[in-house]
Sequence to fold (437 residues):
Amino acid sequence: MTDIDSMSIPYPYLVVATDKYYGVTFSDDGKQIRNKKKNRKKFESGKQKKLRILLTTYWDYPVVGGLQNYITTLKKGLEKLGHIVDVFSSNSFSDNSKGLRKRITEETKRFYKNRYQTYSNKIVKENCRLSLYEMNLRELDLEKYDIFHAQDRFTAIVVGRVNEEYKKPLLFTPHGFMTQRRLDLGMLEQGTVEETYFLSLDRKAIEVSDKVITLCEVFRPVLKKLGAKDDKITTVYTGIDVKLETKKTSKITKKDKTVITCISRLRPRKGHKYLFEALASIKGKLTNVEVWIVGDGEVREELEDQVEALNLKEVKFLGERKDINKLLSQSDIFILPTTSDTLPLAIIEAMFANKAIISTKIGGIPEIIQNNHTGLLTDPGNSKQLAEKILSLLGDPALRERIAANATSYAEKNLRSSTMVTRIEAIYHSFLKGAKG
Fold:
């Protein structure tokens, strides 16, 4: 494993950022380090060769989750095309380095205390994770890869450091709005050194990447605010593999009922409480309707209490399920009342399942759900609007069929995994042929 003494901990550009925050200057240690322009190794044009690709993630893999599903879909799709794909994640290396982790932590705390007379536990923890990831990454034979594709800002900057030696094309796909999201959710406080630190991470991830591949266009203004140029950003919509089920009579409900399904983790930002408020306001008009809440999470008990208090006998909590396609096939309407999201896979699944969809004007959702065409959209947190949209679909089967058919047509054309994979493959080859951005 790489020796800690051979590394700069914390990274120099992060020290520059915190120096500015604390208003300190140093004639030597405080100088900003500018990376020299990379001279990319050129790949001979002509027949496209099969590539060796390294996908990196800061999180555990494989586990259940949207990011992990994306990585698996991309990996399998590229391998189907003949490429060799490896994934390096935080759990790719055994954590037998408790002593080293402790040493890095203590050294980082000492650095900040000597420099600023204080330190942030969040920053110390992140410095330690970055350093350990880099040390383990450097143990790999990275020369054999043609492409590095980071799936988060953290591994983008780590691979960027390591790539100063290899000079391979480095691509970066953010799966969230990074520091901005943490500020919006109250996970970081504005005006703090933590905000300064994490924004510096965001900017560096963009700087060291040759291309930023976004999941939807809503990322563009966020990235441009962080310094990305338009020509450095390209959007490739998330694609999925789908196995459609024919509609069957459910064991859960009678066949003459209209089924509304909401599939999501039970988290505050998913907006379930607004769905229940909407249902309560039209309770007298919910004849022969059942509402399936699929998923689990930290607010389940709170939501169950709300349903009981509102006397919503139509609502059933189904918990975690592995038969999502089957449940969708038995549904008539899909609702996701999220108040904070990028591009939820559940919506794409519902589009392929030929369902009438109601969701919110959040993130990239309006890019694939065009209001009154491929679905219906409401303002986030607006239970009155949501109630109106539900009634419009319950009362108009022809409208349900029309927007469901439009959604499926759009998904078939734009949201297949094969479409996503071939577009990303083309981006890889454009760099290997020496093409610019």
